[in-house]
Queue: 3 jobs
Job 1
Amino acid sequence: MKDHNFTTAFTVNQTPAAAFAAITNVRGWWSEEIGGRTDKLGSEFNYRFRDIHRCKMKITELVPGKKVVWRVLDNYFNFTKDTTEWTGTDIIFNVSRKGDKTEVRFTHQGLVPEYECYDACSDGWGTYINDSLKDLITTGKGQPNVGEPMTDHERELVL
């Protein structure tokens, strides 16, 4: 059976510990508008981007240097018929050594092509993971959302 969940991955020269530290620094790569702890098992945090998207996450798995899992407890989109599409899905970061490099594999389990937001959301995740998170790991500086739209789709929604 083919896996239809959104997945993307990249490799870096940094250690798994460095990648893990960057992943849990959600304000450094996703959005500065995060409320709550993002680095402690059982913690809940909120994400908000204008009136377009907001969600509440719970950290359900946290294995230093290896894995982070967030459960989406609540979600709101202003651009889909089902405004709660992400609710009940899991966002998974797997970190592993691949030779002398570190691989970061991101999966949004439950974000499937049947979802109305799939194209916009997979585009957004692709940008945040493959550009911003990767840059945070490799250079120490990501490009988190600071109130301005980041992806092409976010720009379209705001204009």
Note: The helical segments are 16-24, 26-29, 118-139, 152-158.
Job 2
Amino acid sequence: MIPHPFLGVVFHWLGGLASGSFYVPYRGVKKWSWETYWLTGGIFSWILCPWALALLLTQDLGRVLAQQSLSTLWWTYFFGLLWGFGGLTYGLTMRYLGLSLGTGVALGYCAAFGTLVPPVFKLFVPTAPVAESIVQIASSRPGQITLAGVGVCLFGIAIAALAGLTKEREMPAEQKQKTIAEFSFGKGLLVATFCGIMSACFAFALTAGSPISEASLAAGTSRLWTGLPKLVVVLLGGFTTNFIWCLVLNRRNRTGYQYFARQVRPEHAHLTASGEIAGAGGAAAGSTDLSAPLLRNYLFSALAGTTWYLQFFFYTMGETQMGKFSFASWTLHMASIIIFATMWGWILHEWKGSSRRAHLLIAGGVVTLLLSTVVIGYGTYLKTLP
């Protein structure tokens, strides 16, 4: 199949649209705790969708996975496991910072550390499936440009963080609660930092799973779908992390009953899509309504989880179409997510009531983050030249 880079760009932007939009359906969930709807949606993201589409669109999935070496399966799963921590805290980032600011900061870190994590890890594990260590990268001109792009990325994060701090100082508490029920700049920034670093491991997991794609191609799968089998392994790692933590929270918060109950306990009567009391769309303060819309919650959680999976689905499709421009896949993905998440943030009025200065800062932060992806991509492109 002849690569079509333009089509690859379209696929990457569709993936960015899915990633930047997936959290919106969760706003329709009522009277479920965060851990309950996050795990429900995650079962679709990490288990049902990956297996269903891989079985449907690829050849001999079971045999392809069975013939892989233990090393390939382990590294793909292990870095999926680490990425799972990023996926877990991504939901918390949205909870504390909202779509636009949360995604800008988290994905800014992700773009930076998606470049840095693999080569830094190779310093400690020489057998890791990465071409060069960070020292080797820094010794070449393409590597130096790439690292400069990382610096620009961190600068963009600082601008976005300043926008969030400005917003927190300017907006009345009542206005912040209307749009982001638990807005907390300090807590959100810490969570977003951890999220971005760990989420970068997804790029490493895809690299480690390359032999799975090659085996799927040899089995007769169309190149367009060869990334789907390795997603099964990567996302299984992500599922492991999120499943354990959500069950811990279900037990700690006594919310495990919510998966099956049509009524909630009085202490959970005011839960909204943030998983906490108050906020847009939730029960009014003092409400005694204990009924939970069980079917509605499952439908919205399933929609959110499926939408989240689609980012990976389109990412692997786009990667197969980029040809010699495949270096741009990760940066295109990050850029498109930031753009669409920022769009949703403005549509949902997350910045309503903040000053012109705050709006200019968040816009400047997003532009700087996008610029960093261009610089990182250019440095990677120079690496591909003879």
Note: The two ends are 24 Å apart (CA to CA).
Job 3
Amino acid sequence: MTRCCAGDISMTNYVMGNERYKTAAFFVCNDDEVRENGSFEKAQKVRDFCAENGWVPISMKNDWLTIFGDGVTKKV
């Protein structure tokens, strides 16, 4: 996994290590190249990492109806 996610991974491992309460972990996959500055390749690495660790990937492309508010557009 890339260094940019190291803090997220550490926090997720901490939460998932809690045996007293039922836990779940979700990771946002920035895979929407049209509405956001997404990268399919990086998002696939996140999906693979989630699969290896039992975490739930969330796709910006497929799971989000909107990304920005009305009138906000992606920077090019």
Note: The chain has one domain: 3-63.
